[in-house]
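User: Working on a comparison across species. This one is Sorbitol dehydrogenase from Stichopus japonicus. Can you predict its structure so I can line it up against the others?
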Amino acid sequence: MVHSLCVHLFPYPQEDREVPQPGPNEVQVAMQRVGICGSDVHFKKHGGIGEYMVKKPMILGHESSGTVSAVGPGVQNLKVGDRVAIEPGVPCRKCKFCKNGRYNLCPDCFFLSCPPYDGSLEDTIVMLLTSATNHVSLDEGALMEPLSVAIHACRRAELSLGDKVLVLGAGPIGLVTLLTAKAMGASEVAITDIQQERLDVAKKLGASSCFKIDPSLNPEEMAEKMHAILGWRSDITIECSGAESSFQTGIYATEPGGVFQMIGHGNPIKSFPQFVANTREIDIRGTQRYANTYPTALSMIANKLVDVVPLITHRYPLEKSVEAFNTAETFADNAIKVMIHCDDSLTA
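Assistant: Here's the predicted structure for Sorbitol dehydrogenase from Stichopus japonicus:
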């Protein structure tokens, strides 16, 4: 039987389910790694993100890797035993967005652990997959998902060689955005956070400058402090925290004609310095997950352009998933990325 972790009321119930069998063009995957994303924590803590509301027990998890345990009719490029990284979204492939290559905007997209769909935090799942990732580790395979978020954001911002970049927020997405911006040719990457421990990690990962947010300063003053120290405003600012004050600081910190790229969510309605954004002609751009990024993420990891494994600070077996979520939610012991082992490689 499959053991599934559901989110409904704390504590999370674990339940047994029938092992799912693959249909045409589907593969059955024995799950081995599932990283805890900030959205998973948000669903647990708040019961939703924006319009995505949890209305029934739901399995969490979408940063996933595993091995193929069975294949359905029509599967040609995968075999039992292949290692796979799971792109969690399956679009309709028929709407105008899918046909234009922007399948992340598909209104009928199935996405793991996004209501009403279950996620991957269980022993076995069935998915539509097309290629193996045997040349990267299981940890790296699971982290291809947050890396894809960063790749998509940097592409949306049109980051190019020599750009000066400011990343706001040094959580898992902020740190992987730092790595991606550097790999894509940014000449300088500064980063902010409210926790010094995370900035210390960012420095080890190659941040050119790190700034701890000073709560005694308003957003404009914080931006001016960074400008005075750096001697430049950012060509591209990438906001990863979702905090309103961070959003405001980012607008003030961006060069005229620059790009303010959003990733973080937080409060769905925010105030911001509209006059500054308008008169500086700052382009404010959104992101919705990612599209056409997994091949790039795989190539970047396989060719050692980025090293994502140091982001993993804590590991738990599936049986201790409640403890894992508590660690991720509270940032206990300076947690950054919490990884759950769904197999028996990490015993309870």
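For your comparison, note: The longest strand covers residues 27-35.

User: Helpful, thanks.
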